[in-house]
Specification:
This protein has about 130 residues and is mainly alpha-helical. The protein has one domain. It has five helices and no strands. The chain is globular and about 50 Å long.
Length: about 130
C-alpha cells in the first residue's frame, strides 16, 4: 500500500477514547458510593482498564487488517474488533483488580453502553458524511 493511501488513525482513536471517557463518567455518576465517590481519581480508576483494552484492540486491528487503519476503524468488523478487545480486556483487568468475576449485569451494561458510544460516534460520522 502506498504511503498516500495510509492514514494515521488518530481521530478514530481519540473519538474512541472520548467515548470511553463519557462511558466511565456516566458509570461513576451512576455508581458513586462512600467507597468510591464521584471524583477525578474515581473516574480515572474506572476508565484506565478500558483504555488499556482500547489500546490492545487498536494494536490488534493494526496487525490483523490489510485495510488502512482509518478504514479498518470505520468498517463494522474493525470497529467490532476494537470494541470487543476494549470490553474483554477492561473487564478482565476489573476482575483482577477486584478479585472477583464481574456480575453478569455489569458485563451486560458495560458491553452495551460501550458499544452504544463506540459504534454511535461511527454511525454519526457516517451519517454526516452521507449528507454532504
Amino acid at each position: 500500500m502506498s504511503t498516500s493511501t495510509r492514514h494515521t488513525p488518530a481521530r478514530p482513536i481519540i473519538f474512541d477514547a472520548i467515548a470511553l471517557a463519557v462511558f466511565a463518567l456516566l458509570a461513576r455518576i451512576a455508581h458513586q458510593s462512600a467507597d468510591m465517590p464521584l471524583s477525578f481519581v474515581g473516574w480515572l480508576s474506572t476508565l484506565w482498564p478500558f483504555l488499556i483494552g482500547l489500546g490492545f484492540g487498536w494494536l490488534l486491528l493494526s496487525r490483523a487488517t490489510a485495510l488502512t487503519m482509518v478504514s479498518g476503524a470505520r468498517n463494522g468488523r474493525g470497529a467490532a474488533i476494537v470494541w470487543l478487545c476494549t470490553v474483554i480486556v477492561g473487564l478482565v483487568i476489573w476482575a483482577l483488580r477486584n478479585g472477583a468475576v464481574p456480575h453478569w449485569s455489569f458485563v451486560l451494561v458495560a458491553s452495551a453502553t460501550s458499544a452504544l458510544f463506540m459504534f454511535g460516534w461511527r454511525a454519526a460520522v457516517a451519517l454526516a458524511g452521507s449528507r454532504k
